[in-house]
């Protein structure tokens, strides 16, 4: 555990010092919220801002989570990973630290979106509802970043990884229930959206916003996250021996 | 307890045998592993540092088996790969402190101060590492590698890309560590450095040890003098009793002779008779370069292909 915290500390300092990355991480979701939430000339639902906010939250976690693999990839190609692996620190702590750091980083970004959303007209929720929202985002974050680190372990260079993340992020977002409700989607899109893992998280957060406790989606997300973590651990052990 | 001990250590990547039956021992000395690219140096280091498991044979560090007791091995070694991996957006002090915390050393802050002083980095300790020169970054890596007082340090090409002054400083530090009783295992391309600073060297080629011993012994094993010949145009081989052909290095053709002064005119005659147009000839004492050339042979041909193949094999691993 001490190893995990030390690794997270390092990644955190590097993130904060890398100012462009920090600013971009904060500006990008805000821009999405403002442009899509306020400027888009569509009106699917009553308060579109309330509708779109869960989508933007999950998208933010998605883009951040995907970069978890990138973080590991750089450690791998720059020679840090070999140094770390030659140390008596439990090796899994490298993997866990990346997943946790990225998830927590994503949570920080979503906090900005939640604040901004309320400022520009979204409904203010009960603290318990925010708690549940964070829980869903955390589970989804672990799920995505574990997935992306697993892929990064298999790929050799950063270019392939960048290609992979570009290929995954946008299609996943646009085929999810982020932008519009299922009933206004074309049939084919609705079919894809129903099995898209992003929709699970988005729908669950909307449920929370509507005043329900979505037990089944949360359980499912937890199971997904756990399964991918186990797979990531296996792959990590396999490629590092 | 011998610090580094390997027995028939072998690593096979598909059809390519990267390391082939390596048996060696090193203890409280500076041991240099020399060899052309793709000869198996890095693969050997990866196996000794528990980053790669062998196909056959065994290796032990400070008495611990690298496969059965990897964590014990990791506690008594440090590994500095050739990539110069320092966090450039962290200060020198933060870089070392990070390692001290990972190793869980007591009083990490004091230990870091001490090591920065040893590596002569105290004045620049709070500057970001991106402002450091190559030599300083290497010293920073050495400081990181020393936080837990390892018994064995593995340095992969420690002076690669550094200027002459910085190289000398790095070697002085390596030497000082060795005097304190540390075993140091280096791989290098630079024969002159290995000759000057290593207690013993092993020359590895195609995964096999081609020569092993003290630089002075290896040089003595060659004959006394080295004759270097440069010819204009193609070289036609000659046979001569007093001089033995060693190999070619660039445009130089090398011979060794028991008595260089006597062999020189005879060799010149023989070369002329065989139709060579001799441009220059010179006589000198053998260097480790000559030993390398003799044990490894000519390097130009096939080499690029081999390296490519080797890299592909390495990729297949990860």
Write up this protein.
The complex is a heterodimer of chains A (241) and B (318). Chain A is mainly α. Chain A has helices spanning 2-17, 19-39, 48-77, 80-85, 92-119, 127-154, 158-174, 187-195, 197-209, 215-240. In chain A, 80% of the residues lie in helices and 0% in strands. The model of chain A has no long low-confidence stretch (mean pLDDT 90). At the A-B interface, helix 1 and helix 4 of A face helix 2, strand 6 and helix 3 of B.
**Secondary-structure class of chain A:** mainly alpha
Query: What's the helix count of chain B?
Result: 11
Q: Give the total of beta strands of chain A.
A: 0
How much of the sequence of chain B is in beta strands? Answer: 25-35%
Could you give a short account of the major beta sheet of chain B? 6 strands, mixed
Radius of gyration of chain A (Å): 18 Å
Topology record:
The complex is a heterodimer of chains A (about 240) and B (about 325).
Chain A lengths: L1 H16 L1 H21 L8 H30 L2 H6 L6 H28 L7 H28 L3 H17 L12 H9 L1 H13 L5 H26 L1
Helix pairs in contact in A: 1-5, 2-3, 2-5, 3-5, 3-6, 3-7, 3-9, 5-6, 6-9, 6-10
Chain B lengths: L3 E10 L2 E11 L3 E5 L6 H8 L7 E6 L2 E2 L4 H7 E4 L11 H12 L4 H11 L15 H13 L5 E5 L7 H16 L3 E6 L2 H7 L2 E6 L2 E6 L1 H7 L3 E8 L10 E7 L2 E6 L2 H14 L3 E8 L3 H9 L6 H15 L1
Parallel strand pairs in B: 3-8, 3-9, 6-7, 7-8
Antiparallel strand pairs in B: 1-2, 1-4, 4-5, 9-10, 11-13, 11-14, 12-13
Helix pairs in contact in B: 3-4, 3-5, 4-5, 5-6
